[in-house]
Design brief:
Number of domains of chain A: 1
Oligomer: heterodimer
Distance between the termini of chain A: 38 Å
Number of helices of chain B: 0
Strand content of chain B: over 45%
Radius of gyration of chain A: 13 Å
Helix content of chain A: under 10%
Structural class of chain B: mainly beta
CATH topology of chain A: Immunoglobulin-like
Helix content of chain B: under 10%
CATH superfamily of chain B: Immunoglobulins
Largest sheet of chain B: 6 strands, mixed
Order of helices and strands of chain B: EEEEEEEEEEE
CATH class of chain B: Mainly Beta
Shape of chain A: globular
């Protein structure tokens, strides 16, 4: 069966510091991968998606970037965090069908 | 622009008191409507996918239905463990070979014993 992992689970970072969040999927190959952010009082917002290694598409302009160095690994990064980057970051995957399956999430607090 | 609106924002029910949650959408050419359940501090858990008007799907005390403009999540004789935020979403065509989802803000459901 397929499993999706995210780490860290929680993170507290100062403004201006770098960020690296990791997502990995097990039990499938060539998945589509997604990064979403869920901010307080707002719905889930799609940030990036990837259909293959090295292929990244961004949905909204922002202070973040994404990379996919391996088939089942998706990384969300920032060079300098802003207060507005705080939120709950979720990684999701699909294996060719429509349904997206979400990971456990990373709670990021920028102080 | 595709939009998804959920109502009510919050709903408090007594155990055993049945009710319905609403999800209305404005999309050009629906390619599926998804329901998820999200517990506090956790990622959304997939519940149902509906593709065409008139379609219904059930899982335990939950039944999802779809019309041309909205979807309902019916909760029959709920239990406290059904307390969660329920999210609906539709695919947002991006043209890049992978569709993200556009989510509503969710309905926060509380079932009191």
């Amino acid at each position: 069966s397929q499993t999706i992992h995210q780490w860290p689970a929680t993170l507290v970072q100062p403004v201006g510091s770098p960020l690296s969040l990791e997502c990995t999927v097990e039990g499938t190959s060539n998945p589509n991968l997604y990064w979403y952010r869920q901010a307080a009082g707002r719905g889930l917002q799609l940030l990036f998606y990837s259909v293959g290694i090295g292929q990244i598409s961004s949905e909204v302009p922002q202070n973040l970037s994404a990379s996919r160095p391996q088939d089942r690994q998706f990384i969300l990064s920032s060079k300098k965090l802003l207060l507005s980057d705080s939120g709950f970051y979720l990684c999701a995957w699909t294996g060719g069908a429509d349904t997206q399956y979400f990971g456990p999430g990373t709670r990021l607090t920028v102080l | 622009e595709d939009q998804v609106t959920q109502s009510p924002e919050a709903l408090r029910l007594q155990e055993g008191e049945s009710s319905s949650l609403n999800c209305s959408y404005t999309v050009s050419g629906l390619r599926g409507l998804f329901w998820y359940r999200q517990d506090p501090g956790k990622g959304p858990e997939f519940l149902f996918t509906l593709y065409s008007a008139g379609e219904e799907k059930e899982k335990e005390r939950l039944k999802a239905t779809l019309t041309k403009k909205e979807s309902f999540l019916h909760i029959t004789a709920p239990k406290p463990e059904d307390s969660a935020t329920y999210l609906c979403a539709v695919p947002a065509y991006s043209g890049g070979g992978a569709d993200g989802l556009t989510f509503g803000k969710g309905t926060h459901l509380i079932i009191q014993p």
